[in-house]
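Checked the freezer inventory, then went back to the computational side. Two predictions to log before the end of the day. The first one is the construct we discussed on Monday; recording sequence and tokens without edits.
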Amino acid sequence: MQLDQAGAHVTSVLRWPDNLIPVCQPAHSPELNPIERVWQFIKQQFKGEVFLTLVELRERLNQVLQQITPEQISSLSSYTFILEALFYAASY
């Protein structure tokens, strides 16, 4: 599980289950957070669109989210450094 370095994520009070490996990204580096690429992809789907009501925006967002495939999410959010970290962490 990749985490930013928020205080709640790095506290020594947290006890991680054995099947989760926390990987902390460097501070102040949202470009390394996989979800940021997913948000960017979603925002691109709205390029040039104008919504007059929140209901219109919600309906369009639901359309976009329903069309995104698991393969697209995987492609957008898979970073080599995360996969390598998980590989090396699993070998310990």
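The second is the one RB wanted added to the comparison set:
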Amino acid sequence: MTLLSSILAFNKKFVEDKAYEAYATSKNPEMKAVILTCMDTRLQELSHKALGLKNGDVKVVKNAGATITHPYGATMKSLLVGIYALGAEEIIIMGHKDCGMCQIDADKVINTMTQRGIKQETMDTLDHAGYNVKQFISGFNDVNENVYHNVDMVYNHPLFDKSVPVHGLVIEPHTGELELLVDGYDKVIKK
């Protein structure tokens, strides 16, 4: 049985048994917050448990490294939509220790791409068009610096409401222990 077949078989039974009823909630976050965190598998359930969250409490945006790579990209858009359209009143940027994007070897990733059939001429074309593939694949050197950078990107965005707190945290992916880097309540501008 393939992965997709097993997922679909499980889902059929899940729906038939009405198991979804245990997860019923609204589209707006109960705790009025949106979290940007990493897609690391270790955080899937651990981060919610370590923060005391249940289904429906927060909006969660995940990507590789919990990183905002462009001020007008999908990640920033998701954070702004969370605030302006979905009722969130706070943002939490949460990186984690031992992150795969910390000091990722972009050359090794590019080499794997070429081994899997991506042509060098494709990469050269992208580079020539102004899309630096190596920079696009690269991560960061320090998780704390990455969290500070992301908090600053949100807080200094021209479309961001400066009365919304933006917190910066780092979670330990083995224990769930949190380290506070930025207390967003200290930076908000009162209206």
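For RB: The chain has a mean pLDDT of 95. The helical segments are 3-16, 46-51, 74-84, 106-115, 120-128, 133-137, 143-155. Let me know if you want it refolded.
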